[in-house]
Amino acid sequence: MIRRVEVDKVTALERKQAEAIKNLWKDPGIQECYDKWREYQLSDSAKYYLTDFDRIAMPSFVPTQQDILRVRVPTTGIIKYPFDLENIVFRMVDVGSQRSERRKWIHCFESVTSIIFLVALSEYDQVLAECDNEVRNGCIFVMYRKRRPKQDVKAAGDFILKLYQDQNPDKQKVIYSHFTCATDTENNRFVFVAVKDTILQLDLREFSLV
Questions:
Q1: Three-state SS at 135
Q2: Which domains, ranges and CATH numbers included, belong to the chain?
Q3: Which residues are annotated as a binding site for GTP?
Q4: Which residues are annotated as a binding site?
Q5: Which of 11, 57, 89, 196 has the smallest set of CB atoms within 10 Å of its CB?
Q6: Model confidence at 200, in pLDDT bands (50, 70, 90)?
Q7: Beta strands at 127-128 and 131-135: parallel, antiparallel or unpaired
């Protein structure tokens, strides 16, 4: 029944379809499979939606802010987002990170003030989406276990951050780092304000105003 559903055309679930999805999610085999979601490129938001599927399947369902934030759609091509932050207009250019998209990046570097490089810490041990036998960062997978104490989130984050900072060939170019969560709107607002201040300081320095 679920296989026959044309996902792109669904705007509302029939009751029998909703029950089938709920029963499938409760299946021990499916739960065991999801426990290995990193091996199968499954969305880490799937558990959020399927655990709360009764609410989502209701005819009166209206997505919450968290529902919307947890939807993950990979970027393809080049997308421009102009936005106003405290009366200053920024233009953000979002580019796809897949290998097939990287050749397009060269067209985006003219008149660039700053580059925001986003890294998902939860994907340190996953394989590439376009190559299922290549780990996204093999050295992290090998060295990560040597960190002590165990299950220290801050130590693990600092370790991965240093791996990226060590790739900076020009020590005159400062890397400003922030740990955040895509669904934490308040934290992200703080990060964007910090980025704005950084850009303004760099502009002032470039024109010898500070």
A1: strand
A2: 7-69 (1.10.400.10), 78-206 (3.40.50.300)
A3: 44-45, 69-75, 94-98
A4: 44-45, 69-75, 94-98
A5: 11
A6: confident
A7: antiparallel
